[in-house]
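User: Mind token order:
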Amino acid sequence: MAWNEPGSGNRDPWKRKNDSNEFEAFLRKLREGLGGLFGGGNGGSGGASSSPPFGGILLGIVALMMVWAVFDSWVSIDAQRVGVVLRFGKFDRIMRSGLNLKWPAPIERVIKVETISRQTADEVRMLTKDENIVQINFTVQYQVVDAQKYLFSATAVDDTLKQAAESAVRQVIGSSDMDQILSSHGADIVGETKKVLQGTLDGYAVGLNVNEINFQNFAPPHEVKEAFDDVNNASNNQKQAINDAQAYAAKVVPIARGDAARILAEAEGYKSAQIAKATGDAQRFSLIEAQYRAAPEVTRKRLYLETMQQVLGHSQKVVDSGNGKNILYLPLDKMKADAAAAAAAATGAAQ
């Protein structure tokens, strides 16, 4: 019978049933299924109870799975961590801080990894380049920069870093002298140790970055500390003696050089004066010779008088040669006056 024939009830194949009735039927089946799943009864005719159908149980399970999937699809990552997303156990992506969306488990799983700075400390005893024993306490501050490598490149990354740090410290300390280590207090070897450690970690590809290395203590072991202190004291005494000698040399050498320069200058002055005096005397002799050749008698007389004046000019004796004979006079009054003046001067100086 055709759909539009009389008596067919105008059944239109393009017209669906009432949507409201279908939705109410779905809700009723869902309610019945949930009620049966959790032990509820299904009211029937005459008040008799019946077992829930299998379809109701399946609908209840599906509903619970949908609710669980909605709540399991969101992951909150704080600012100090990153999330490593595994899809069916294989790395897929990195989640940053904030609220992130993912597929529910077991499709995707998130492992949270801290990216804040971490610290490890250790104490080692080792030999230096000059075969001395030194005990060192050190700390290493590091952080995770690649969470994927941190999780999957090694089984115990933190232990690997600790062992690599000890190896780097031994390498650097073993190539340094004890005096160099103690005198610098580690300032010169920190950078080298950090460089060696970071190179080792990069070779392991563990996703770690070394922020800072600190050396807290450089000291010999207590078994040899007394002997080591004796060696240090002897070394310090040697340095003190060298410094004193250098200070004395710095004080004496300039004085000696000054004295030498002064003596040399005086010698040069004396030399110049003697040369000038000899040159003057020679010129004077030449002039006197010329005058003597011109007037020998007068020149001889003048030379005699000048010589006597130079010889007797400061003498207390008087020589009179007026009558052709040399007569010596002593000026007692003048000598007495000079003696009194000298005594008065001495008395004044004593007071």
Residues 1-19, 40-51 have pLDDT under 50 and may be disordered. The chain is about 55% helix and 20% strand.
